[in-house]
Amino acid sequence: MREAVILEAVRTPYGRRGGAYREVRPDALLAFTLKGLLNRAGLDAGKIEDVITGTVTQTGEQGANIGRLAALLAGFPAEVPALSLNRMCGSGQQAVHFASQGVDAGDLNYAIGCGVESMTRVPMFSDIGGGFERLNPDLLGAVDLIHQGESAERIADAWGLSRDMLDAFAAESHRRAAASRGLHAELLPAPGLDAGGNTITVQHDEGVRGDIDPAKMAALKTPFREAGVVTAGNASQISDGAAAVLVGDREVAIADGLRPRARFRARVAVGDDPTMQLTGVIPATRKALAKAGLTLADIDWIEINEAFASVALAWTQELKVDPARVNPWGGAVAHGHPLGASGAGLMAKMLSGLEATGGAVGLQTMCIGHGMATATIIERL
């Protein structure tokens, strides 16, 4: 019987906008990551049967099927196909889903689910040439599409989340991320530049701050509402990065001398209220748990993307989860959120966390623009 397993998973350290990767093209960053993935796994690129790539802003240097271009840059044989997809913030996670589903179906023996985003070189919304005003007016007349920041504010209202609560969550995310430095086996050190333009090897996520000044955090402006609670400090950082997950059929991989590290217990994508927009993580989690026949008590590692602190806090409150169990190594508020890469990157991080702590089962979920969410449950082997 076919069974998709994770064989290797890596991510670059995430760079700040305008930071270490400012001169690195996103196709080159992904190519570096693809090569690093297969080098770690010890698998020949010719055995890969598809490269499925999540990228949100598919224009300019991220256009023209960046997955295919990156695979060619990485030296993969021309016979290895690739595609690029956009499920917005869940793109990298969806890429892993599609790769594993292709293996489970018997269509593929090996596939890569990956993602990349250079938010420095290809800014958000540049694919549509502006903001929501560029969308179909008939759609805007039928659906109340608002900025995600305002959705995050509405979530804070609905769950009674104060500015102090959001800022405390953000500070804790940085504290955990700083404390976990050195534990991230998934990190693939990558070439970049320091502030002076000198070539360096980026070893850790650039955005993590070991010491957060509460006064400075409290002084940040609330850009979405005059008297709001959402700030740049309690939202995910705009970042650059790439990540990749190697998936294969369990029996084929073992025969080839590879070690399966985890299997998939559930993969889901859901639609939800497009105005609240970021609450889909709640039904996605419930659906994934039901598919796997598990409860949250069975989960050893919880990874929820910190697009906004209010999203993660509302999720913990609604599902009655101890916040100490959520994002043990911090999240996107601290390490950043390079849109298309984050889903594969969180998968790699979660697998590292499970292995480092001896955990067995991990849950990953991500909110997505326009009211969607993805969720995955994996079991370590």
How would you summarize the topology of this molecule?
Blueprint: E1 4-11, E2 15-16, H1 26-41, E3 51-54, H2 66-73, E4 82-85, H3 91-104, E5 110-118, H4 137-142, H5 148-159, H6 163-179, E6 190-193, E7 199-202, H7 214-219, E8 239-249, H8 250-255, E9 262-271, H9 281-292, E10 301-304, H10 309-318, H11 332-335, H12 339-357, E11 361-368, E12 372-380
Parallel strand pairs: 3-4, 3-5, 10-11
Antiparallel strand pairs: 1-8, 1-9, 2-8, 5-8, 6-7, 9-12, 11-12
Helix pairs in contact: 1-2, 3-12, 5-10
How does this model look, in words?
The protein is built from twelve helices and twelve strands. Helix 1 (26-41) crosses helix 2, helix 3 (91-104) packs across helix 12 (339-357) and helix 5 runs parallel beside helix 10. With 381 residues, the chain is α+β, with helices and mostly antiparallel strands. The chain has helices spanning 26-41, 66-73, 91-104, 137-142, 148-159, 163-179, 214-219, 250-255, 281-292, 309-318, 332-335, 339-357, and strands at residues 4-11, 15-16, 51-54, 82-85, 110-118, 190-193, 199-202, 239-249, 262-271, 301-304, 361-368, 372-380. InterPro entries: Thiolase, Thiolase-like, Thiolase_C, Thiolase_CS, Thiolase_N. GO terms for molecular function: acyltransferase activity, transferring groups other than amino-acyl groups.
